[in-house]
Design a protein that fits this description.
Chain lengths: 536, 86
């Protein structure tokens, strides 16, 4: 039996550049360690097992260059391993503590096994190199890797400087060619799915042939596409745009209703770091805010039983939900196939951090769902965007509508009362940079290094996460500090270049040591290519 | 005062907008959020001074912005194209 439709899964994999060269194990740096330990390793190990079983699955991961840079950083790799060692140690301590409480002991033992596995996998299976583990999976033909913006700038708020949008894309593609595939990416993840008219041209110029949008970017495209978000449209520039399906997204990830909020699942907020004292927590205790331990005894809601997270019961629930998800997709596809007269493609886009971090059981659900899709049914076929476009190269021509996957579908998450001050400051910093380029034509030596550092600081400040954090008021001091430091550093470069006689000669070395994002790249040469494109 | 012009499909020269509306702001205002009346149009804003006889003296003009549509387009897609991956 031939399939009746397709499921296209994309996991967006991104973290801002949170390396702190001076202070190891800050709470923010531990975002990386938690993501590696709770999401990337469980997903990579699970998908490697599926690939070993010769399961014919497909899944795409976007990988942002700022995250890939952290994967490749030896200092961070070392710290990540230490974090995992500390977790293994803490889990042993928990087993000793809980041996008098049988209800908690089994769960403590389960965490101990989970952490030990994760540590072993990181050290022995992937030699601390997460990026290569993704690439090995890509080489099996089951996983695609998408490029993304260099530091995840939200493009619609940079529309007035198209060369800066091009710079984000160009640097992202350059990074991909250097670290992932010399042939370059065909697919691109727009940060926050942020699209404005003209992004398609910039993507095309950089060799990209497809990207993803939220549903209304396709539904409100002009002229009106005939298949809704169930087929890609071709932008006039010659790039395909796939639209996110809201239905499958909501099944998984809507507060209190999606699978991830099930009462049987572990409660994200019940981390042990909230329950134990400083002395007990040791490594995980930090004056500026404890690091998460990953051990959670509480479950989302205390129904029948004792309110303690029971891994076995949770995994039974994953199984039920995997069946439910597939049945829902099948009936959706049957319905659509009959009405559209062609095989629909359901596009499911999620943040990778949902699977394992926000929803600890997520990787188990995903594994069961993928296995069932591949081995137990024929109606739905998992497909990659490349395969879809190879099988269906002709699609409707339409210009997508400005959109994002943020709150209300547009820009108000990244431009509101608590974060709008960012843009005038950075727009001004861009004008100052242009002035420096006019003052120092054909720069070399220290001047070139200083201009590269300016761009490094600029890229760092552009990251959409800072505006998002200020919007959510979660780690506002940190986000504010990151942007302000970058702005100060740009002013400092400007001052030193225009008044070279003043002050300390080590200033640039200090700055480079503190922020070494894309430290081995000549950012200016890529920036100049973006400028030339803008003028042509 | 802010004057917001609808400049859809025209080369704006200061006095040829399709329509405009004004927003009174005070001297120390450094930002303003606007409700835009009609979507799928292009707008720009001028900041300036209200003169005695109901006139307006613009001092600076913003970049244009596009307000996206809030519903599907009336005209159905009619053409198709082919995309070839490398």
């Amino acid at each position: 039996m031939e399939e009746e439709g397709y499921l296209l899964l994309v996991l967006h994999t991104h973290l801002p550049f949170v390396k702190d060269a001076e202070h190891a194990f800050t709470r923010e740096e531990s975002w990386l360690y938690e993501a590696v330990a709770d999401c990337y390793i469980p997903l990579l190990s699970m998908l490697s097992n599926l690939a070993d079983l010769k399961a014919d699955f497909r899944i795409a991961f976007s990988l942002t260059p700022c995250l890939a840079e952290m994967f490749n950083d030896h200092v961070l790799q070392e710290r990540c391993l230490r974090y995992m060692d500390e977790r293994v140690e803490l889990a042993h301590k928990e087993i000793r503590t809980q041996c008098r409480f049988p209800a908690l002991l089994e769960t403590a033992q389960w965490y101990s096994r989970k952490f030990a596995f994760c540590r072993r996998w990181y050290e022995e299976r992937c030699s601390r190199d997460i990026l290569s583990a993704f690439i090995r999976l890509r080489d099996t033909g089951t996983v695609s890797i998408l490029a993304s913006g260099a530091t995840h700038a939200y493009f619609p708020l940079w529309e007035i400087f198209p060369h800066l949008v091009d710079f984000q894309v160009r640097l992202g593609v350059h990074h991909y060619k250097k670290h992932i595939n010399r042939g370059g990416p065909a697919g691109f993840w727009l940060p926050e799915c942020g699209y404005f008219t003209n992004v398609d041209t910039i993507l095309y110029e950089n060799g990209i042939r497809y990207f993803f949008l939220d549903k209304h970017g396709i539904l409100n495209a002009h002229p009106r596409p005939g298949y809704g978000e169930y087929a890609p449209v071709h932008c006039p520039a010659g790039v395909a745009a796939f639209g996110r399906n809201g239905l499958v997204h909501d099944l998984v990830w809507v507060k209190d209703k999606g699978y991830s909020g099930d009462p049987l699942y572990s409660d994200f907020n019940s981390d042990l770091s909230n329950d134990r004292n400083e002395k007990y927590l040791g490594f995980f205790s930090r004056p500026a805010g404890n690091i998460k331990t990953g051990i959670k005894y509480g479950k989302n809601a205390s129904g029948p039983g004792n309110g303690i997270f029971d891994p076995a019961a949770a995994f039974d629930r994953c199984n039920e939900q995997a069946n439910h998800f597939i049945a829902a997709c099948q009936s959706h596809i049957e319905y659509l196939r009959a009405r559209l007269g062609k095989k629909p493609v359901i596009v499911a886009l999620f943040d990778t951090e949902l699977f394992g971090h926000w929803w600890m059981e997520g990787p188990i659900w995903l594994e069961l769902m993928l296995k069932k899709l591949v081995f137990d049914q024929k109606k739905i076929r998992l497909i990659s965007a490349e395969e879809y476009l190879a099988n269906h190269p002709c699609n409707e021509v339409s210009m997508p509508s400005l959109s994002s996957w943020g709150y209300q579908g547009y820009s108000e998450t990244w431009l509101m009362g608590r974060n709008h001050w960012i843009y005038p400051e950075l727009y001004q910093a861009q004008e100052s940079f242009q002035e420096l380029l006019r003052r120092f034509p054909g720069p070399s030596g220290t001047v070139r290094e200083a201009l590269n550092q300016y761009l490094r600081e600029f890229l760092q400040a552009q990251c959409s996460d800072w505006a998002f954090i200020l919007h959510r008021e979660t780690a506002s001091d940190f986000a504010m500090n990151r942007i302000k430091t970058s702005i100060d550093n740009m002013s400092s470069v400007y001052r030193h270049l225009l008044h070279p006689e003043s002050g300390d000669r080590q200033w640039l070395k200090h700055m480079q040591k503190k922020n070494d994002l894309f430290g081995d790249m000549d950012l200016l040469s890529i920036y100049e290519q973006s400028l030339r494109l803008g003028k042509s | 005062m802010l004057r917001i012009h609808d400049i859809t499909h025209i080369i704006f020269q200061g006095n040829n907008s399709h329509s405009y509306f004004d927003v009174e702001i005070t001297g120390k205002t450094d930002h303003w959020y606007l409700n835009i009346p009609v979507c799928n149009r292009n707008y720009c804003a001028e900041i300036g001074i209200k003169t005695g006889q109901g006139g307006f003296l613009p001092l600076a003009r913003s970049n244009p912005i596009y307000v996206p549509r809030d519903c599907p387009s009336d005209s159905p897609a009619q053409s198709r194209s082919r995309i070839v991956l490398r």
